[in-house]
Design a protein that fits this description.
The protein has 288 residues and is an alpha/beta fold. Helix content is 42%, strand content 17%. It binds guanine. Belongs to the tetrahydrofolate dehydrogenase/cyclohydrolase family.
Length: 288
């Protein structure tokens, strides 16, 4: 039987409506408008698309949106000075530095300079530690969006076998932490995993976040499993154009999975919705 397609776009629209209603209440009842600052260094075309859609969504939710587009040659010191200014700006509740940053800038140092209370990406080492110890943290947006869809699909995740493919700080590791917190039995698989298809085929829940187009095929998947595809890969079509595909071979895997997210229209929209939700959370905690 064909898998249920998880409509991330519709789910995200719902989250964004709730965020917008919350923003309206904050403005009308407390005189506070949540503000998000997005910082982009250099001219990465993919990053520019992400930053534009983040800014548009922020405004649509009724929040203050500030974009800082810095030249690729911007020094680390100048970037740190901007972050310091944003940290002290009371109209800004969330700060996001789009990654990757150019090679001459130390990304870890930049992330560490963001006030953890404004770290809506959840990448600051103190938020990473809070999440890892099960405390109240800012949770990275992409894994948070995946978790919301999984909870909606399954209700309780307790006791489920989950395999996360990919060990990045942005997705794989925090995703695994969230699944452990929801009482899954979690495996993080990666490029050095032996018998990757065998490991994945044990899973009730598969989260693919490796950046390899169409890598996961039907033979890897336990019948009825839920498959969340975090990959966004641009590949060439036969007619010379390009199209976006995930890390999962959608046509193949949807013949055996129980539920699956499409690319585009799955995880991507949820990431932006969670960024808006995190900004409202940061604002509420700050004005507590
Ligand atoms: N680059 C790719 N994904 C992300 C993300 O979620 N946040 C930031 N800041 N940069 C990214």
């Amino acid at each position: 039987m064909a898998a249920k397609i998880i409509d991330g776009k519709a789910f995200a629209a719902n989250v964004r409506e709730r965020v917008k209603a919350h923003v309206t209440r904050l403005v009308e009842e407390h005189g506070v408008r949540p503000g998000l600052a997005v910082v982009l260094v250099g001219e990465n075309p993919a990053s520019e698309v992400y930053v534009r859609s983040k800014g548009k969504a922020t405004k649509e939710a009724g929040m203050k949106s500030v974009e800082h587009k810095l030249d690729a040659a911007t020094s680390e010191a100048d970037l740190l000075a901007l972050i310091d200014r944003l940290n002290r700006d009371e109209t800004i509740h969330g700060i996001l530095v789009q990654l990757p940053v150019p090679d001459h800038i130390d990304a870890d140092k930049v992330l560490a300079a963001i006030n953890p209370a404004k770290d809506v990406d959840g990448f600051h080492i103190s938020n990473v530690g809070l999440l890892g110890t099960g405390q109240k943290a800012m949770v990275p947006c992409t894994p948070l969006g995946c978790l919301m869809m999984l909870r909606e699909e399954h209700g309780s995740l307790a006791g489920k076998e989950a395999v996360v493919i990919g060990r990045s700080n942005i997705v794989g590791k925090p995703m695994a932490q969230l699944l452990v917190k929801d009482s899954c039995t979690v495996t993080i698989a990666h490029s050095r995993t032996k018998d990757l298809p065998g490991v994945v085929s044990r899973a009730d829940i598969v989260v693919a976040a490796v950046g390899r187009p169409n890598m996961v095929t039907a033979e890897w998947i336990k019948p009825g499993a839920t498959v969340i595809d975090v990959g966004i890969n641009r590949i060439e079509k036969e007619d010379g154009g390009t199209r976006l595909v995930g890390d999962v071979d959608f046509a193949d895997v949807s013949t055996i999975a129980g539920a699956i997210t499409p690319v585009p229209g799955g995880v991507g929209p949820m990431t932006i919705a969670c960024l808006l939700a995190n900004t409202v959370t940061a604002c509420c905690r700050m004005h507590g």
